[in-house]
Amino acid sequence: MSTVVQPCARCGARWAVRGAPMHWCPRCRGVLLSPAPIDAPAERRNYRWVARRPDQRPKRAGASTRSAAPAGTPGYTEMPRWGLIDQLPAEVAVPRRRLAGFGRRVDALLMVTAIVFVLSALGEVVRYLILLRNRTHLIDPFVLRISDALVIGSAALSLVFGLAAAVGLVVWLVDARRAAYARAGLRDPRRPRALALGCLVPVVNLLWPGVFLTELALRRQDPRAVRAIRIWWLAWVVGGGLAVTALIWRTADSLQVKADGVVFTAFTDAWAAGIAVLTLWVVRSLDGRDLLGRARTARRWVVAADPVVHVIEPLHPGAGVAARADAEPVRNADEEDMPEDRDTDNAVDREQQEVSAK
Prior knowledge:
three-stranded antiparallel β-sheet, mainly alpha, disordered C terminus
């Protein structure tokens, strides 16, 4: 077995030299390097690897070199984010419309609506505690008036701010859909009147707002926004059912049923506050922000390549000796009695073969 090999620069296979050296790898048709002993150290090889930058090109001999002007210290205008670069979409001019102020203040309206519904739920809880106290003690009329003012005032404020938030959401939805379709050079197929009727008409607004928001999220190709819309949609439908049940519960004649209705109304108000927060989450997700209003960094997934394969297989010390030991034929008794001069001649012949191969 030959101890002189030629490594392939492409696949890393090592081919034994038998006679004249080869130029191309029989396996992958890559370039074969110069012959060298199979276990030769790096300093004894007649080739070496040189690493250069991708932009470093060899200069032609005799080419005139021009001295470049000194440049300033390189710097960044913002914190660098290594990876794929997202091209910012071009700003689309949206025409001014009536009630545009509601659309610009939709975040604030939703937060105020959530706070008012929380106060309404607390008012119902206080009223239920007064009912429990009234079973054994008389209640001061002043305390009853405060409780009534808290319940009625919070209910009126929740109705007013809820309607204002609904109008702001419709305006925001019309502008967001128009801008999303305009970036693609299209026109929104749904008219603003259809969007308003689908979002504001009772019973109908349990279905169509989710459809409108899903179309917007699919147009922007944002899977996180689609997930947020599905969660909001389910909570919105359940909230509609809770609101209808709370209204029916108020028509009961039994005192105990009315007291239970107070607890159920408190739960409904708390659920409405949660829906307001979920709506804020959906709006900010579609605007490229998180729930706290911070800009969200885009995430891109890249298809992984094949496992890393070393171009040149590392040399293992003693591998050539083990290979020769495995390939060495069994000697007979006559060969064992031959003098050691034959080993010396074989070593000399091997060195001459290496010199001829180089």
